[in-house]
UniProtKB/TrEMBL annotation:
Keywords: ATP-binding, Nodulation, Nucleotide-binding, Transport. The lineage of its organism: Bacteria, Pseudomonadati, Planctomycetota, Planctomycetia, Kolteriales. Residues 2-237 form the ABC transporter domain. The keyword Nucleotide-binding applies. The keyword Nucleotide-binding applies. GO terms for molecular function: ATP binding; ATP hydrolysis activity. This is Putative ABC transporter ATP-binding protein YbhF. Belongs to the ABC transporter superfamily.
């Protein structure tokens, strides 16, 4: 469903140097699978998603969604992808119903299908009572529900989630988790990028651990546990990236001593 093959991106920096933000990344995501693309800040996750969506040209390799190459047929790719980000972007001057209808129209959903789909998604996400409210009056959590509905309005086969729970409270995060489980039941392929590693452990079927533009390890949680000898994704990250926390517990004790 999603194929990424030797994908690379080199940025030319103002200093004249070059940065290999994504460096030969390959992975696949199948229908009904949630793939966790995880890594520290600057690992290259968002750049990978932008190339996959056809928003950014690659420097090498290719990506495809449902058989359509992002670099050759980006419009076909966008038609098949729903995007959820942490920026809960809604159109302030439209009602929620108008905004969802607007996006349905942009994606070419037939008008007679749109109404039923808005009602269905609003029911699923618990926002039916908000449909005729102006988007400008919605709370952060309500806006995120609206964004989730917007991502599915054209019934995409693939959903990309880039930090979907950033800034949300426990209830909001649980809703996003339920949404991701629902995607799996619908047989959609999904990529989840998140820094909440415990959340990723619970939600993803397989993981690609990214560091410095490369996938340094890939597999199910059990496979990664067997390979690394670590129990949690957090411990795996620290081990695989070869990085220790800036402060060891003994350092913290010293800091406390100095402070007292
Ligand atoms: N347009 C650009 N020009 C130059 N460098 C860029 C550009 N976009 C991203 N980068 C750099 O590429 C690297 C990867 O960035 P990217 O946003 O993909 O990381 P990320 O894994 O999504 O990080 P985060 O978890 O912090 O969002 C970073 O070093 C970033 O500074």
């Amino acid at each position: 469903m999603i194929n990424v093959e030797s994908l690379s991106k080199t940025f030319s920096l103002a200093s004249g140097k070059e940065l290999n933000a994504v460096d030969g990344v390959s992975f696949e995501v199948h229908a009904g699978e949630v793939y966790g693309l995880l890594g520290p800040n600057g690992a290259g996750k968002t750049t990978t998603l932008r190339m996959l969506l056809g928003l950014l040209p690659s420097s090498g390799g290719w990506a495809s969604v449902a058989g359509f190459r992002s670099d050759i047929e980006p419009e076909e790719v966008k038609r098949r992808v729903g995007l959820v980000t942490s920026g809960t972007g809604v159109y302030r001057w439209l009602s929620l119903r108008e905004m969802l209808a607007f996006f349905a129209d942009l994606y070419g959903v037939a008008p007679d299908v749109t109404k039923g789909r808005i009602d269905e998604l609003a029911g699923l996400l618990g926002i039916s009572h908000l449909l005729d409210r102006s988007c400008s009056t919605l709370s952060t959590g309500q806006k995120q529900r609206a964004s989730l509905a917007r991502a599915l309005i054209h019934d995409p086969s693939v959903v990309l989630l880039d930090e979907p729970t950033a800034g949300l409270d426990v209830m909001g995060s649980q809703l996003v988790a339920a949404f991701i489980r629902h995607l799996r039941e619908l047989g959609k392929g999904a990529i989840l990028c998140t820094h909440r590693l415990e959340e990723a452990e619970r939600l993803c079927d397989r993981f690609g651990l990214m560091c410095g533009g490369r996938i340094i390890s890939e597999g199910t949680l059990e496979e990664l546990q067997a390979r690394t000898g670590c129990e949690t994704l957090t411990d795996m990250f620290l081990q695989l990236s070869g990085e220790a926390p800036f402060l060891e517990p003994k350092d913290l004790a010293e800091v406390k001593e100095v402070a007292s």
